[in-house]
Amino acid sequence: MGNKTIFKGSVITLAVEDAHLPNGSVHKYEVIHHPGGACAVPIFENGDVLLLRQYRHPAGDYLWELPAGKLDVEGETPEQCAARELIEESGYEAAKLEKICDFYSTPGFTDEILHIYKATELKPAQMATETHEIIEVHRFKVEQIDKMISGGEIRDGKTLLGLYACGFGN
Amino acid sequence: MGNKTIFKGSVITLAVEDAHLPNGSVHKYEVIHHPGGACAVPIFENGDVLLLRQYRHPAGDYLWELPAGKLDVEGETPEQCAARELIEESGYEAAKLEKICDFYSTPGFTDEILHIYKATELKPAQMATETHEIIEVHRFKVEQIDKMISGGEIRDGKTLLGLYACGFGN
Questions:
Q1: CB B139 within 8 A of CB B49
Q2: Complex ipTM above 0.90?
Q3: Which domains are seen in chain B, by residue range?
Q4: Of the listed B30, B98, B121, B133, which one is catalytic?
Q5: Between chain A and chain B, how many beta carbons pairs sit less than 8 Å apart?
Q6: What is the pLDDT of residues B25-77, one digit of tens each?
Q7: What is the pLDDT of residue A128?
Q8: Nearest CA to B154 among B23, B15, B61?
């Protein structure tokens, strides 16, 4: 009985916990603890959108994604994190960031919360990717984004959600 | 070096793996292997939507969610899984299921893929929830759904994405 930490990694912590449910029952629950993350939907004045082409080991493939990163810098707010990751990963800085939503990525097994910001008034800045980040930056027109969504080319949850929430894909 | 399974639970498997990146470098990667899941966006003829109010231990709270479940039944397709979970969790059966999209819930640390179906032509069926599932079924009008999305009341990723993809939230 009780909670037991099984593994503490550089990104995630796995615990097996007693979930005390509102109906009084107790159920063993496998939980991945995660610091959460923030991402930006970078939109130019003419509606063009920046997406990253990023290799993801768990998917074994390249995925189209919004610039994003973990909330693992001490004292940094989700908005500051989104702003920093946008610069580092896309090479653009946003003068304006607007909160779109925050959500549990997959609450059946993790407490990870992702925060999405609409990023506008973009200007070039200095990229700074890490060696294990295999990233290409691409700029797309609205029609291209809509087609990539409807054609199933965009397969990352936060990216689909951020784009829909900013009015794309309809 | 090599891949090591750290934990094999009833839902998730945690492994630490050597990710061989396309640039030739090798990077240690913490991966949660998950069978994936399927969910349904149940929409009545007049546009009303069914959502579940479900207690989630990782969130420590109740969340509004689409009926959904894991792909853990041998030989079951994602569509059959969505149809079954819809009946079991909401008490409604759909005569029509249309694939909306599939996506990685959070590809930074898991290979979980979720499949979303639009479920229409609904009629009552026999619910069958499990003891650890604390679920209430609620029916909402379009305006209520839009308000719940814009007000931040819906905080589950697949649910927000499924609703946006079916034209809500705009």
A1: yes
A2: yes
A3: 39-100+121-165 (3.90.79.10)
A4: B133
A5: 182
A6: 898 999 999 999 999 999 999 999 999 999 999 999 999 999 999 998 999 99
A7: 87
A8: B61
